[in-house]
Design a protein that fits this description.
mainly alpha; 3 helices; 103 residues; single chain; globular
Length: 103
């Protein structure tokens, strides 16, 4: 099933600024940057952040995004909590051979 774009405004609430320091704030789009928003929320977010991503994306989309991330991208406690909240059964252990790494 193809995910449906959220109907919320295109930028996350101001409370996300500290979590998204690596992105230009004025250019953030909540759908196009959902991978960064979700991962940073899981690793660094408060309960307010977690509630917002659940409302904005839904648990199914969050699960899809997190399953595409490498296990090394998570803090261990954060990953354990995400596994419980989002019924996350698997996370990738290695990159696929056709993935490129840009520096």
């Amino acid at each position: 099933m193809k995910p449906v774009k959220p109907t919320l405004k295109r930028q996350p609430p101001e409370i996300f600024k500290p979590l998204l320091w690596g992105l230009k704030w004025s250019a953030i789009d909540i759908w196009e940057h959902r991978h960064d928003i979700i991962l940073n929320t899981v690793n660094y977010g408060s309960l307010k952040h977690w509630r917002w991503i659940i409302r904005a994306y839904g648990k199914e989309e969050i699960r899809r995004v997190l399953q595409k991330r490498l296990v090394t991208e998570f803090h261990s406690g954060s990953l354990n909590l995400a596994r419980v909240i989002f019924s996350l059964s698997k996370v990738r252990r290695e990159r696929l051979s056709n993935e490129f790494i840009y520096f």
